[in-house]
Structures are given as C-alpha cells and as structure tokens.
Design goal:
With 281 residues, this protein is α/β, with parallel strands linked by helices. The chain has a single domain, classed as Vaccinia Virus protein VP39 (Rossmann fold, 3-Layer(aba) Sandwich), CATH 3.40.50. 33% of the residues lie in helices and 23% in strands. It has ten helices and eight strands. Helix 6 packs across helix 9. The N and C termini lie far apart (53 Å). The relative contact order is 0.17.
C-alpha cells in the first residue's frame, strides 16, 4: 500500500520558483535558523570537506563555504537552487540523483517539511553520505504557527460553517528520532527550540510566508478564492503580545550519522563495570 499523498509537490515547486525573487526579504530569519543548526558542527571534532545543501534558499551554502567546506546545493526549484552560488542542481528530495557516498555532510535547513515520503527521503540522504557522515536537518515541528492555524480555522468556520486546511501539518518531535533510526542512521538525536515572532502588522506574517515560498501546498486545500473577510477576521482574532501579533516557530533539529567503523557503539546489556544499584548508593 502506497504512502498517502499529503502535499502537492508541483505547488511546492511553483511557490519556490516564485519565491526565488523575494526570499531575500526573509533572509535574516532563515539565516538565524541556519546558524542555530550549523552551530552543532562545533560540537564534534570531525572535520567535513564535502557537503550537500538541501533547499538552503541561498543562505546555507555561503555559511558552509565560510567554514572551508565544498558545497553542492539542490532544490526542487531550479530558480531557487541557482541562488546558492557554486555548484547546484534542481532535484526532488524524494528522488535524489546523487551516488552513494558522495558527501560527508548533509544539511537540510527548514526544507524537508513539504516531503510526502519523509522516511524515504531520509534513507536517500543517508545513502548519499559516506560512512561516518553526518546529517543535520531542521523542520518546523508540531505547534508551529499554532496561533495562525487556530485563528484561520475558527474564522472560516464562523464565515462558512466549515474549514479547509490552510496551514501545513508538521511532524511531532517524538517521531523524528524514530524516523532517523528507521532510515538507518546511527546515534539519532532530535530536540526542539521555540522561537517567538512578533508582528506589528499582522499581514506581514502572510507576506513573509509567501516570500519564503511557504504558501499552502496541502493536497486537500480549498483551491477556491477564500472569502474576502477570512484573513482580516483571522488576523484580528490572533493573540497579541505587547500589542503585536504573536507567531510561534517550533524549530526541531535532528542529527544522525551514517553507520561507520569509527563510531562509538553502545555497550551490550550487562557489559557495564558498575551496577546501577552501586551507582545509586
């Protein structure tokens, strides 16, 4: 039985094509998220030489090159891929064209949340890594844009008696480490950081999402023109903090290593030299 199709990949590509001319408007936010992810490279003594940048939107590749790492970039949108400079290719994350063992580092900053088969994409990324290669990825986690989701649902229900999905579903943090393990990564880790955004102009949030290529691409979205009162009603009802509209990004970071001979291995049960009872005394 095939996996359900949640996202319209053609719509995702078209959104990113269009955003290639506007993504600079949100480069600061994308750059901050990328820096938070790449800071994890400082936690390992491993030095990387050849990286794959997946969907970095012109932000990640320069940061990697500044670290002395050779970079190949890919994006579903050819126009967006071209923003990364250097070597780049238009490629679908669900059908990656790279040979096994092509890279020792893969970085996917806020770029995998529109993938229908996330386990399959993670398997392909692991296969593209050399033994002992590292995956660094971030995704919006469950709870991201929760204020906007609730406001749109309630406003649309009040106007039409029903509601269609207008904010993407996001993965639960508890599932991400399990997905890494399922994809064959060793030493999987997943954690989340909450970033609070404030908008004096509520419409600026919608403009930022559009500028970043984050338009609604859910297959079951209502493709009719929404009621004219929908977004004004939803935005006026959204919670305020310090007089500004609140928006939450739950930034989930995941790391995993391609299996290799140099990795530390967990001890077998019973192999410890000190018993738990003795340690607790």
């Amino acid at each position: 039985m095939s996996d359900p199709i949640v996202f319209d990949r053609r719509a995702v590509r078209l959104h990113r094509d269009r955003a290639a001319t506007t993504v600079g408007q949100v480069a600061d936010l994308l750059g901050d998220c990328a820096e938070r992810l790449l800071d994890r490279l400082d936690d390992t003594t491993r030095r990387f030489t050849r990286a794959l940048d997946v969907g970095g939107r012109g932000v990640v590749a320069p940061m990697l090159r500044a670290r002395g790492i050779e970079v190949v970039s890919c994006d579903l949108s050819a126009r967006m891929a071209a923003l990364n400079g250097g070597r780049c290719v238009a490629a679908d994350e669900e059908w990656l064209p790279f040979a096994p063992g092509s890279f020792d580092l893969v970085v996917a900053s806020l770029s995998l949340h529109w993938v229908n088969d996330l386990p399959g994409a993670l398997i392909q990324l692991r296969q593209a890594l050399q033994p002992d290669g590292l995956l660094l990825a971030s995704l919006p986690a469950l709870g991201t844009l929760g204020e906007l989701r609730t406001a749109l649902t309630e406003a649309e229900a009040g106007l039409t008696g029903g509601a269609s999905p207008r904010v993407s579903p996001f993965p639960d943090l508890r599932d991400l480490a399990a997905l890494l393990q399922r994809a064959g990564f060793a030493l999987p880790v997943a954690d989340v950081e909450e970033i609070s955004l404030r908008y004096a102009d509520p419409l600026a949030l919608l403009r930022d999402l559009r500028a970043a290529g984050e338009g609604n691409a859910v297959v079951l979205r209502d493709r009719r023109t929404p009621p004219g009162a929908l977004f004004p009603a939803a935005l006026s009802a959204s919670p305020r903090r310090d007089g500004r509209m609140a928006a939450t990004l739950r930034f989930a970071s995941i790391t995993g290593w391609a299996p290799g001979p140099q990795q530390l291995q967990p001890l077998k049960p019973g192999a410890g030299r000190i018993s738990l009872s003795d340690a607790l005394k």
